[in-house]
Amino acid sequence: MVHPTVAVLERNLALYRRLWRASAFSSFILPVLFLVSIGVGVGGYVGTIGGVDYLAWIVPGVMASTAFQMAIGESTYSVLGDFKWVRAYHAMRATPVEVRDMVSGWLLYILIRVEIAAIVFLGITALFGALHSPWAVLTPVIAALVAMSAAAPVMAFAASIEHDSYFALLFRFVMIPSTLFAGVFFPVDQLPQLVRPLAYVSPLWHGVELSRAATLGVAAPWPIWAHAGYLLLCCAAGLTWAIAAFRKRLQD
User: Fold this and answer.
1) Cβ atoms of 60 and 139 closer than 8 Å
2) Cβ contact 183:199 at 8 Å
3) Quick one: which of 70, 153, 203, 219 could link to 149 by a disulfide (CB 3.0–4.6 Å)?
4) Cα(39)–Cα(33) distance, rounded to whole angstroms?
5) Is 241:153 a contact under the CB 8 Å cutoff?
6) pLDDT digits (tens, 9 = 90+) for 23-54
7) Global confidence as pTM
């Protein structure tokens, strides 16, 4: 028999096989359209940032933010639905599948989704000539770290609530501000000094800076180990919280 984590992953992929067309636009086409409209269109007015054209500067930010938004989106309604309406997790609990397998299987599913989108996006941006360093091949790995650091705590949050109305607050006060003020569209040092720490708290900022360092071949604001360590810390904390939240929800 396959490992329970793999069984959960297989179940999620089987469901996605029926739904992949609905996510193709947001996962692949929308980021490219956004890149062209903002990177090329607006970039014609912006000019250069840090000595590079705006298109090349914004590419790593769009890639990281796409992974961030995909991870949050997949960890909200789907997780709550499998608890509250579908009760798939309750069905899994009656099998040899453990709580850690449920969490790990879903995170692996998100990881596969994000990696496919990141690799496709990377290939398209290479055609635009927006990659200035061979280290750009590491950006899918960075996207994976960003996705896991966002997905794990959001999964825990989704497992802890009873009403999906809370997701509107999550999108409005966490996802959107993180996307706007994490260095995706403009350097964080242009923000007021008082606001900058809020950007530093977001895992997206660390992912954006790592991706930008890789695609442009420049030094990141913090040491590489500090950015990567913060993302890994968010992953570990989120995973611990998610397992605890799943276990509590299934015992109630």
Assistant:
1) yes
2) yes
3) 203
4) 10
5) yes
6) 766 666 767 777 777 766 766 777 778 788 88
7) 0.91
